[in-house]
Design goal:
- By secondary structure, the protein is mainly α.
- It has a single domain, classed as VKOR domain (de novo design (two linked rop proteins)).
- It is globular and about 55 Å long.
- The chain starts with a helix and ends with a helix.
- The model has no long low-confidence stretch (mean pLDDT 95).
């Protein structure tokens, strides 16, 4: 797959996450002004942003997680624009961004688990952020597969797996498992 196409995927993932994080921050500010406000993202008892945003898990670092996500998704989107424009993005920067994306994917997975099993509600905007993270991680892996510090044989196997779509399969399975976990918990 061409690099420009992959940077396009990073841009789309970054844009999805950035918009969702921005809207989530606005919803959080609305709650701060009026704790009984009817948020636009409160769809029902399960899809309830206000229940999620009021939980301690939404402020792990002492401020809303969405503010941290705005910074991360902005950086991803900005670098994607450089790549889309034909600019040079060094391997070192790409690897750092992949590491950051993986960290946020782990954090997002933990957060969705907490939302499902502890908070017992889901924030629809958070699910869009997770979708954006999946796109970022898929694209960064493809962009960086040749530059990873792994053995030559492992790198050859990884590149072969990517060439045959195994990465797409793996990310799809991850998304299906996350969706199934939430669906089974709330509807099982």
């Amino acid at each position: 797959m061409k690099q420009r196409t992959l940077y396009g995927v990073v841009a789309i993932g970054g844009a999805i996450g950035l918009v969702a994080s921005f809207l989530e921050t606005i919803e959080y500010q609305t709650l701060l002004k009026n704790e009984h406000a009817a948020l636009a993202c409160n769809i029902n008892g399960i899809l309830s942003c206000s229940r999620v945003l009021e939980a301690w898990q939404s402020k792990v670092f002492g401020f809303p997680n969405s503010m941290l996500c705005i910074m991360m998704f902005s950086a991803m989107f900005s670098v994607a624009l450089v790549g889309l424009g034909g600019g040079r993005v060094t391997a070192k920067l790409r690897l750092w961004l992949q590491g950051i994306s993986l960290f946020f994917l782990g954090f997002g997975t933990w957060f969705m688990w907490e939302s499902t099993y502890k908070i017992r509600a889901l924030c629809i905007l958070c699910t869009f952020c997770l979708g954006g993270l999946l796109l970022l991680n898929w694209a960064w892996l493809r962009l960086n597969a040749h530059d990873l510090s792994i053995s030559k044989s492992l790198q050859t196997r990884l590149e072969h797996a990517i060439e045959h779509g195994a990465d797409i399969f793996a990310w799809t399975i991850y998304a299906i498992l996350m969706g199934a976990m939430m669906f089974i918990h709330f509807h099982g």
